[in-house]
Amino acid sequence: MTITPAPRGQAGASGVAFLLQLERRLRLLQDTGEILSLSAQLLGQRLGAQQVACFDIDQSLQCPTLQHAWSDGLAPGAAGEYFLGDYAARLADALAAGQALAVSDVASDPRTAMPAALATFARLGIRAFLNIPIAKEGRLAALFVVHSSAARLWHADEIELAVQVSERVWSTILRARAESRLRALSATMETQVAERTREFGRTWNVSPDLLGVLNLDGYFEHSNPAWQTTLGWSVEEIRTTKFFELIHPEDLPRTHAAWEAANQGQPALRFENRYRHKLGGWHWLSWVAVPEGEKVYCSARDITVEKKLEADLAARNSERERLWRSAQDLMVAIDADGCFTAVNPAASAILGWLPEEMLGRSLFDFVLPEDAAATRQALAQVSREAMPSFENRYRHRDGGHRWLSWVAATEGDLVFATGRHVTLEKEAQSTLLSMQESLRHSEMALLQSQKLEALGKLTGGVAHDFNNVLQIISGNLQLLQMTLDGDPLAAKRIASASSAVERGAKLSAQLLAFARRQPLKPLVTDLAQLLRSTEELLRRATGETIETRLLLADDCWRALVDPHQLENVILNLAINARDAMNGQGQLTIELSNSVLDSGYAARHADVAPGDYVQLAVSDTGTGIPAELLDKIFEPFFTTKSEGEGTGLGLSMAYGFLRQSGGHLTVDSLPGHGSTFRIYLPRSLEAETELPLQLGGPVLGGKETILVVEDDVQVQTTVVDMLRGLGYVVLRASDGESALAIVGSGVPIDLLFTDVVMPGKVASTELVRQARLLLPQLAVLFTSGYTQDAIMQGGRLEPGVELLSKPYRREDLARRIRHLLANGRHVTALHQYRAQLAPQPAPALPEGRHILLVEDNADARAMTSELLAMLGHTVLAVGTAEEALPLLGTPGLDLLLTDISLPQMSGVQLAELAARDYPQLEVVFSTGHAPANSGVLDPQARFLVKPFTVKQLQRALLPPGQ
Questions:
Q1: pLDDT at 509
Q2: Where are the alpha helices (H) located in 870-943, listed in sequence order?
Q3: Which residue has the higher pLDDT, 376 or 640?
Q4: For 479-522, what is the HEC assignment?
Q5: Could you tell me whether strands 778-783 and 802-804 are parallel, antiparallel, or unpaired per DSSP bridges?
Q6: Is residue 130 within 8 Å of residue 101, measured between CB atoms?
Q7: Pick from 613, 610, 537: which is nearest to 574 by CA?
């Protein structure tokens, strides 16, 4: 048989509240039937029972008398005598001893599983019951029964509640009977005096309440036995002790007040105080006092238990109130209309709203509209069952929102809910998801970067060997061309082969760019100016049917980048865009400032947070399919038809930008076009000048050059070219051999060495040790594959001169001539400065005002110092562009300018000076012979480098002196 647990009676504070409520309501009743009816109904409903009844036990338990029965689902019992037979005989002793009896199932309990009893229970519809005995003075006086139509498990707090109710009801019945009898006795006068006295005496003796007659002196002349039962004091002790002596000190003021009111004739008094027990401790008594003549008739009930329960309830309520006020979680009560009926102070800390601002308002005034539907569904769920957890967002007073995680349950018509503030957890969760997504992107980017890095190393190695091969072919072609004796067919073939070498060199340069091994010469560049200067070139490259737009933001930052290489990248992207648009569409180039934060950097493994200049190239072409976006930067990958492209353009751009510390991304939507975004690090330095472009005639010399090259064929070709230019050439195949030659004492003017060298002595170590032996030694590096040995962050180290393979004979000749001339010139200037330093400066009253234009910083500084020591006033600049606005300086006598300058040459500068300032004298400073300088004016004055102080002084003399 399955016993179903019944809904438990509320224990603790809730049970106490029930007893107090019952007590208050019973005090208002005097009729025994009404007392039994009310108490049976309330207890039955409280316990979820189907019947509650009360029996009087006059003689034996076998024949009790039913006083009253309340029924809900069972047949009501008629008042009268009942015969319980053997069942009662078995339980009489236990019930008489005051033991409550609980039977969860009459069919399985051995105390009731008798055929006769089971038949009776079945007829009455009883399956489980409680029997609560009322034993007085050692005998069973009454029996309270609680019947259930279904088997159920009786809990201890339910049994205790039934016992408490039965005792209070029985006490109330006895008191009501006593009071009823007293009233009946008072209805008659003399004829019922004896009966009233007997009944009064009986009531007086059996009443659980303390009854007494108090005289005006404060002594109880009469007291009933309940005094001794309750407080332990005998009748005699009570009679001889003034009642004030038994009262708790704290209760004396209100007791005195009640006593004074009685003495003043107040008809009835009700108050409470504490009386001392004979054995110690205090008992709370609830008094009803009626003055009559010189006596006060008193009745007191022991309410110590009730007071303790009230105190416990108050403490619990106080504890709940403290918890309510101090809780960090939001606690609310919501009525059936969804309005707040209670809100704790945590609302201010969490939502910024005062509790009184939320009371009476709908919770949907605060829930975000996006969460309203889910919140309604949660409210509907909690009305049916407890809601374990639910999250939504509430509006904050400042306009934002806060995440709350709720648990809720119903009680009556209210929903009680507690909301925990989880905004930080939600934000942390969101951040974690974002970090996981960023990590995934970073891993993908790292894999792609590693893939491209591996391809870069491969292509870099191929380019190195390829450049050496090209150098051999190119050098021999140039040497062969010098031996032709007017053979046009041979010259044509050599020209064709040379053109093929140039195409191969371009292909090799693209491979090196992708491998990030090309030598870069970055300058602080104004990208807006760079784009304006290349605009016409871009329009010619894309054609008239492509609309080209430049959108350049104001005050764009400068960037440190190799401008020539960047021009190639932009041109390559423009040509790709033209091809993607099939010659018809719009090309947009935008330039703006951009700040890449740590979040962006976390999603892109190849970029660091910081300030960048963003250059975006967008087209309206066919776009790039998503599955190809990860491949477009790989070398030799192309979406063009066969023969229309090498597949190296984007890989070159990618490698160049990575080598420049930049970043390249692409966004594309098939059918709508593509946007390539270039990010270059911002530079805070001033814009720098473009590098020197060497020109002029191909000249040789008589100096000694040491060539260090491990490839025998390349070495032979270079040696032949240099000897053809007139130089004395020494050769070595590795760093150790080269150091032996330098250490032998042979005079060497210039070291021409490959960067990549076999053996123990690297090229940089060779240069370092060679300059210790020969401090004035000029050095020129060459390589087809630049390594980190002479690079810093992908760029050439300051002061390093590099001639990339394959190079032409003309480039080699001009570069060597330039280095040798500048080296000798600077050395001579240092020597002359040392000679002049200890001597007093000559007094030259006719010192001249000179504008010096020299791109070599050392030469410019030394020449300026020499001129000043000679008594002249000097303005020194590095470019013709800087010199132009100074030509009109008042009192300027002479322009001393180098011929080979960045951008505008010294010859062009002199022509502008002659046009605008014809009185200004001009002297050209050059490392070439005047005949090879490119100056056409036969009257031109020259100062050939390296020059002596006397030569400098003569060059500065006015014409005719």
A1: 59
A2: 880-883, 906-916
A3: 376
A4: HHHCCCCCCHHHHHHHHHHHHHHHHHHHHHHHHHHHCCCCCCCC
A5: parallel
A6: yes
A7: 537
Say if residue 522 is exposed, middle or buried (CB neighbours under 10 Å; 0-12, 13-18, 19+).
buried
Instruction: Answer whether 49's CB lies under 8 Å from 71's CB.
Output: no
Angle at 587 between CA 586 and CA 590, to 5 degrees: 130
Q: How many whole angstroms separate alpha carbon 891 and alpha carbon 187?
A: 146
| Phi, psi angle pair for 850, to nearest 5° | -120, 140
pTM for this entry: 0.34
- CA dist 501 and 190 (Å) reads 151
Tens-digit pLDDT profile for residues 735-788? 898 998 888 888 999 999 988 778 888 888 888 898 888 888 889 988 766 554
Among candidates 198, 163, 205, which has minimal Cα distance to 184? 198
Q: Which residue has the tokens 């760029």?
A: 795
Do the bridges between strand 220-223 and strand 330-334 make them parallel or antiparallel, or are there none, so unpaired?
A: unpaired
- C-alpha 801/C-alpha 780 separation (Å) is 5
Q: What is the DSSP letter of 339?
A: B
797 and 831 Cβ atoms separated by less than 8 Å:
no
**Residue reference for tokens 């599983």:** 113
State how far the Cα of 910 lies from the Cα of 925, in Å rounded to an integer: 12
Read off φ and ψ for residue 345, nearest 5 degrees: -60, -15
Q: Identify the band that residue 339 occupies on the pLDDT scale cut at 50, 70 and 90.
A: very high
The counts of H helices and E strands in the chain are: 27, 37
Residue 42 has which token pair?
């309330």
Beta-strand runs (E) in 755-903: 778-783, 791-792, 795-796, 802-804, 849-853, 873-877, 894-898
pLDDT above 50 (res 9): no
* CA–CA distance, 879 with 573 (Å, rounded to integer): 32
The rounded distance, in Å, linking the Cα atoms of 811 and 721 is 11
Tens digits of per-residue pLDDT, 84-101? Answer: 555 666 677 777 777 888
